[in-house]
């Protein structure tokens, strides 16, 4: 985690504008700026807390951040910033909210300063792992620093009702706490599972893996009884050169890559599930007797659910297990065209009882046969029932040259059933954009840029087939487009990425000349008798 923070990028200014054009508009608001956002936590009332790293002199939402550090910010339910706390040589990558307290984990180097806490990390010992707690006004309550001769990371965290904090991470060789040293006896990455007491002290550390292997824990969730569920991946073939990976008394053959395991409150392994071909990214406790996992796979796999999922490219999977490790339902989405890709990122259990899933992909993505995300490389936020039934999907679309979305984008939800998503995207194009329905983040990016957005409360579903009675081609276009299926009396309205109405020349009934338009994406609203729809067209020259 966090290796991106060691690079330098040339970033410009991003502007945001918005205009609500439809009652079914999937996004309430969004904003962006230069830098990274790694994760988001949201309370039942819609107040959000984001952690990230801004690179330019303006910082995050006008608050300058230290060049070697990150920030923690509070955002109102309407998308305005309330406060920002900045840190020196410390970047938090994951955040959780529990019982009005914030818990965060990340990394630091050299002279680390987090509020009133400071640590020295020997530059020769790699990056240290930071675990901290804050109140909802941004005050630091406690900070714990784990050190190692090599980089040590905390990839996910979860907190139970008792305030006990569980961490899933990766380390190697040795781990130094404030009082103890744990020798891992391995030069390669191993799974680390840590439990912290409510006051911030380490209760225990449990490890899994084998000597000379690369094994990573990417997600953790805890239940109401004090147990935790950890998922992750081993790199099959390339780095696993031992006969098996050890999870306490359980073993995982080196031919497998996906794992899901359970540990009890004392850190002992209870069971292990594994499979070939899948890479897990997150796990979420669903309440009752089930957990859900998400990730991606590139081959046939029975890693999740009761059926075999088939894939010829990289596709997204979700699935459930009961608390004894028995598979339940399974779900997948796939890229519509080779060599397009899609993959699952993270999960969040909504206070209203639903399950949100964050995924990303390039080109067209199929959900239950419905095609979404038809431009560039984008992000999808989907809401599921806890039985695995998909209810709706909201889409963010990127400029066709947008080539990367954060694998560690954050996802949260509020009492009204709205999803909050945060992350970063990258484009090598000097003028690029990210659109959230009629909301757009635009500007001279040419590097990494962050975003934060909220969906509205969509209980009736989204108009995923945006123009079911019409078609637009060519799309993208360098000039003239044809809107097939409209009558001569149809009302066709074009708006640009800033929500302004623009008027291309109408050559004939369904022909429009876009030559006078700037490059970018335009929304098209069509009203034609009983037919109504919203579409998009991209102008590229």
Brief characterization of the structure:
The protein has 541 residues and is mostly beta strands. It folds into 2 domains: 3-455, Methylamine Dehydrogenase, Chain H (7 Propeller); 471-539, Immunoglobulin-like. The chain has no helices and 47 strands.
Describe what this molecule looks like in 3D.
- By secondary structure, this protein is mostly beta strands.
- The protein has two domains: 3-455, YVTN repeat-like/Quinoprotein amine dehydrogenase (Methylamine Dehydrogenase, Chain H); 471-539, Immunoglobulin-like.
- Helices cover 0% and strands 55% of the residues.
- The protein has no helices and 47 strands.
- The strands form eleven sheets. The chain has a seven-stranded antiparallel β-sheet with strand order 1-38-37-33-32-29-28, with no helix packed on it. It has a six-stranded antiparallel β-sheet with strand order 24-25-26-27-30-31, with no helix packed on it. Strands 2, 34, 35, 36 and 39 form a five-stranded antiparallel β-sheet that branches.
- The protein is globular, with a radius of gyration of 23 Å.
- It starts with 13 loop residues before the first strand and ends with a strand.
- Residues 1-26, 300-312, 442-446 and 459-466 have low confidence and may be disordered.
């Amino acid at each position: 985690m966090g290796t991106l923070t060691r690079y330098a990028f040339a970033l410009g200014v991003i502007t945001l504008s918005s205009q609500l054009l439809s009652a079914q508009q999937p996004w309430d608001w969004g904003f962006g700026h230069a830098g990274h956002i790694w994760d988001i936590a949201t309370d039942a009332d819609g107040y959000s807390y984001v952690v990230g790293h801004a690179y330019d002199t303006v910082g995050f939402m006008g608050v300058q951040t230290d060049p070697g550090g990150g920030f923690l910010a509070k955002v109102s339910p309407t998308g305005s910033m309330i406060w920002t706390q900045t840190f020196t040589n410390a970047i938090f990558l994951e955040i959780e909210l529990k019982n009005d307290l914030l818990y965060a984990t990340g990394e630091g180097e050299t002279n680390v300063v987090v509020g009133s806490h400071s640590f020295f990390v020997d530059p020769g010992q790699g990056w240290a792992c930071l675990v901290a707690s804050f109140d909802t006004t941004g005050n630091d309550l406690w900070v714990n620093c784990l050190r190692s001769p090599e980089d040590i990371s905390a990839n996910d965290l979860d907190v139970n009702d008792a305030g006990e904090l569980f961490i899933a991470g990766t380390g190697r060789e040795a781990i130094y706490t404030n009082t103890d040293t744990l020798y891992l006896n391995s030069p390669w990455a191993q799974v680390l599972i840590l439990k912290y007491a409510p006051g911030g002290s380490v209760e225990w550390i449990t490890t899994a893996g084998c000597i000379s292997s690369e094994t990573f824990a990417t997600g953790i969730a805890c239940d109401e009884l004090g147990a935790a569920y950890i998922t992750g991946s081993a790199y099959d073939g390339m780095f696993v050169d031992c006969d098996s990976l050890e999870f306490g008394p359980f073993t995982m053959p080196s031919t497998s890559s996906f794992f899901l395991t359970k540990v009890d409150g004392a850190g002992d392994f209870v069971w292990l599930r594994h499979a070939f071909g899948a890479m897990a990214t997150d796990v979420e406790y669903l309440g009752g007797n089930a957990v859900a996992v998400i990730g991606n796979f590139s081959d046939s796999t029975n890693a999740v659910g009761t059926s075999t999922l088939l894939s010829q490219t990289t596709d997204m999977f979700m699935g459930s297990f009961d608390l004894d490790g028995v598979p339940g339902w399974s779900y997948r989405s796939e890229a519509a065209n080779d060599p397009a890709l899609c993959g699952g990122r993270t999960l969040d259990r909504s206070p209203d009882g639903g399950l949100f899933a964050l995924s990303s992909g390039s080109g067209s993505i199929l959900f239950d046969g419905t095609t979404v995300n038809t431009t560039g490389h984008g992000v999808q936020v989907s809401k599921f029932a806890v039985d695995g039934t998909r209810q709706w999907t909201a889409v963010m679309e990127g400029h066709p040259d947008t080539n990367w979305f954060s694998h560690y984008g954050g996802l949260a939800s509020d009492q009204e059933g709205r999803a909050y998503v945060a992350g970063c995207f990258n484009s090598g194009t000097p003028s690029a954009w990210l659109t959230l329905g009629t909301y757009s983040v635009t500007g001279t990016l040419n590097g990494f840029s962050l975003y934060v957005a909220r969906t509205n409360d969509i209980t009736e579903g989204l108009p995923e087939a945006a123009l079911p009675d019409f078609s637009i081609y060519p799309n993208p276009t360098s000039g003239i487009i044809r809107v097939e299926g409209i009558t001569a009396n149809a009302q066709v309205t074009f708006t640009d990425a800033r929500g302004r109405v623009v008027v291309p020349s109408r050559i004939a009934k369904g022909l429009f000349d876009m030559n006078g338009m700037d490059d970018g994406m335009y929304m098209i609203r069509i009203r034609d008798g009983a037919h109504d729809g919203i579409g998009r067209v991209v102008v590229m020259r």
